[in-house]
Write a structure and sequence with these properties.
Layout: H1 2-39, E1 49-54, H2 61-71, E2 76-82, H3 84-90, H4 98-106, E3 113-118, H5 124-132, E4 138-142, H6 156-160, E5 164-167, H7 175-189, H8 195-205, E6 211-212, E7 222-223, H9 230-236, E8 248-253, H10 260-270, E9 275-281, H11 283-290, H12 299-307, E10 314-319, H13 325-330, E11 333-339, H14 356-360, E12 364-367, H15 375-384, H16 386-404
Parallel strand pairs: 1-2, 1-4, 2-3, 4-5, 8-9, 8-11, 9-10, 11-12
Antiparallel strand pairs: 6-7
Length: 413
């Protein structure tokens, strides 16, 4: 009896020790696992990569807004720039050659990577290359038509496999519209137009909502009246300003028909400091210096194009033509620069030089422009190839008419 009674407490003790061991062991194991969660690095999620292609001929803020929207659909934006040969085969001769278009696209601040000589149509082979070699998740395009010469959709394959996403087209601007403005500009400077030139001018300017402005004596210049919203300006602007000790470089100009020459001089200017401030001259200032037919793009359009460039940190919308002492002090400017290739060589004037103040202060520098391109260069290219551009415009207008019949036009976000 005594031995049986004494055995029960011992069994209870053994059971208690066993349970306690399990509890302690479980706690230690749990803490170990919890500790590993903090020690071991978390597996990084692969970035979503999106692809957008285009000709990007005479690149404008509408193109930039499309790239901005595309970038918002992923983490990294890869852009394909269509080759000159492909553009000629499908649309007609481009105004700007491939190397200039590559400079323009690569300078857009929402672009992470650029593919040269991209095909006009997304073929099965190229689509597989995008998915396998470039790790593309989605192919992006605007809601405007992109039709091949046979009338088929250039993005049909991407849509078929469910890897296609669409963005809104930016209302109020197109390459066709810009060409029309250039031709109107040339018409005003020419006393007699050839029949083919007049026909081309009508083709490009027809249907675009432009009003007549009094650009000077005898002028009948029609310019864009596009007005951006405050939200659009914020979307294009950088979020950070210059630091208190930043070396601020200032460059100003019209920056009309923003082109590769502009991009390259901004790149050089940005490399001379920590922050690049770009002054965009008013329409009135540009007209006074270059004639009532200029600018082709209005102040707001020119400002958005510069804001989209990765080398420009901030712009002054409507900068004065003369750089004053007060302006240098207000914006804490350390250096004022000007390129050697420009429509106006005001920096060479002995009297009435708009840079007289920074020159006297020893903070003015002339930069050798990498490219010999001006706004007039682009206009001359258009005029010299007007017959080819007329055929290109007629083909595009016909396809777009078929596409937009019965559809309303919505401005893109």
């Amino acid at each position: 009896m005594g031995s049986e009674g004494g055995g029960r407490p011992e069994n209870v003790q053994q059971s208690s020790r066993f349970v306690a061991t399990w509890i302690v062991g479980g706690a230690v194991l749990g803490l170990s696992v919890l500790g590993l969660r903090f020690v071991l690095p978390k597996k990084k999620k692969r970035p979503i990569r999106v692809y957008m292609d285009g000709c990007f001929d005479m690149m404008h803020y509408g193109h930039c807004n499309a790239l901005r929207q595309a970038r918002a659909l992923g983490d990294q934006l890869v852009v394909g720039v269509v080759s000159d040969a492909e553009i000629i085969a499908n649309k007609g001769p481009p105004v700007t050659p491939l190397h200039e278009r590559m400079i323009m696209v690569g300078a857009v601040k929402w672009v992470d990577e650029v593919i040269s000589d991209a095909p006009y149509a997304i073929t099965e082979e190229f689509m597989r290359k995008l998915f396998d070699e470039y790790n593309i998740d989605y192919i992006i395009h605007g809601d405007d038509p992109c039709l091949l010469p046979d009338g088929t959709d250039a993005y049909a394959l991407a849509k078929k496999v469910g890897r296609y996403k669409q963005i809104k087209r930016t209302e109020g601007v197109s390459s066709t519209d810009i060409v029309g403005r250039m031709l109107l500009c040339v018409r005003e400077r020419t006393t007699v137009d050839s029949p083919s030139h007049a026909s081309l001018q009508r083709q490009f300017s027809h249907g675009h909502s432009q009003k007549s402005d009094d650009g000077g004596a005898g002028s009948d210049t029609r310019v864009s009246h596009f007005l951006p919203t405050s939200r659009r300006i914020v979307q294009f602007s950088n979020s950070k300003g210059a630091g208190p000790d930043a070396r601020i470089v200032y460059i100003d100009g019209a920056f009309d028909l923003f082109h590769a020459g502009h991009v390259e001089i901004l790149r050089l200017a940005r490399g001379l400091g920590d922050f690049l401030l770009v002054g965009i001259h008013t329409d009135q200032t540009v007209s006074a210096n270059r004639g009532g037919h200029r600018p082709i793009m209005n102040l707001h359009e020119r400002s958005l194009s510069v804001l989209a460039c990765r080398y420009a940190d901030e712009v002054i919308i409507g900068a004065p033509g003369e750089v004053s002492k007060d302006m240098i002090t207000t914006f804490n400017i350390s250096l004022v620069v000007h390129g050697t290739v420009a429509e106006d060589n005001d920096f060479q004037k002995e009297t009435g030089n708009p840079y007289a103040v920074p020159i006297s202060m020893g903070i003015f520098q002339v930069l050798d422009s990498p490219l010999d391109i001006t706004t007039s260069t682009i206009i001359r290219r258009i005029v010299s190839n007007h017959e080819a551009y007329q055929k290109r415009n007629e083909k595009k207008a016909a396809s777009e008419k078929r596409y937009y019949e019965g559809k309303s036009y919505v401005s893109g976000d």
